[in-house]
Amino acid sequence: MKTSEFLKGLAVSVWTGTVHLFRHRMTSMYPETQNYPNTEMYAYDPKKGVAVSGWRGRHYLDMSKCTGCQLCFIACENIAEAIEMIPVPEAAHAQNKKSIYPGVDYGRCVFCGFCVDACPFYALYMTPVAEISEMNRNDLYYSPVELSVPPVPNPAPKVHVNFDKKRGSHDER
Amino acid sequence: MSIPNAPQRKMIYSVGGGDSPALVGKLSEVVKRAVGTPLGYMINWGRLYSLWPVHLETGCCSVELGASSGSRWDMERFGVLEAFGSLRQCDLLIVLGTVSRKMMPRLRVVWEQMPEPKWCIAIGACSISGGLYLDSYNVLQGVDQYIPVDVKIPGCPPSPYTILDGIMVLMEKIRNSDIKGRYHLPEFAQAKIKEETAK
Predict the structure, then answer these.
(1) In terms of domains, do B41 and B118 share one?
(2) Is-above-0.90 flag for pTM?
(3) What's the ipTM?
(4) A27, B74: Cβ pair inside 8 Å?
(5) A85 within domain boundaries
(6) For an interface test with A, which of B72, B144, B172, B177 has the most A Cβ atoms less than 10 Å from its Cβ?
(7) Residue A129 belongs to a domain
């Protein structure tokens, strides 16, 4: 290798380093800020036949609308067998005479959203809550009562994401 | 065969128990609090922010782990390095993807080579519970039946946010463990369990 080529390579590497000092930071500072669309829930409108796009995370069950028709259970039976109909005798709703509600095992769930598509009563949604990792296997079983708790919005400040063709997506500062 | 009317033998040398002699119990407690707790805190602080992982990549979850260790979701902010080096200096095993019956002895060999204390993370539905391969003849239904898994990260595959959250759960576990790496529930959780069992 010639000495001129070596010096040129050295200068180029130093130049790229100095340029990156003044550029926007690529890293999303995840626990301090949030940059994913965490307001929209993944939902399906059975009358129009249109799905509302959103982050697919933990489910949200509206117990006052669920009729215990087991359609979500049938949809999941052929995919992951994550949903199981669990009797909740404490919840007395008129439309649910057997009082059975879906409970989800997140150890098996693959977050495909077919259970939300199958629900004809606007009872099942998917929330943008992605923080569901646990230490024990049993904590991954979510009972209907746990699913019916509405998601708590993340208090961390939201950051807008810029999509750059050259450098990829990065947070706005 | 036990003698019917023999007196029950008490645990005389049990440390810190109710039946133990007062001096021994107190001395051990004093030594634990004076030396063990701050030393364990310091050592755990060192373990927390320098986790050296081993990746056992058998499925598509490894792509998401590659994304989360890239520059966008920088996993090195939490001290989790990328995969390199030998198994004998690592302390975190990350199982990604389906573990078949033939893969399990290799996983066991990897796990046995790592020095104590060591932790294990299972990522994805396949490694937690078998996932979509629920009727399979050779895919194991969860690796936690064979090696101790500390944190389960659900998803198929999980997003980098979920992986980073699982790493924070593992850090919380290390923070609450003693010098030997054994995990103890924090006091509020113990009180909660006591309340639930009393009901």
Answers:
(1) no
(2) no
(3) 0.85
(4) yes
(5) yes
(6) B72
(7) yes
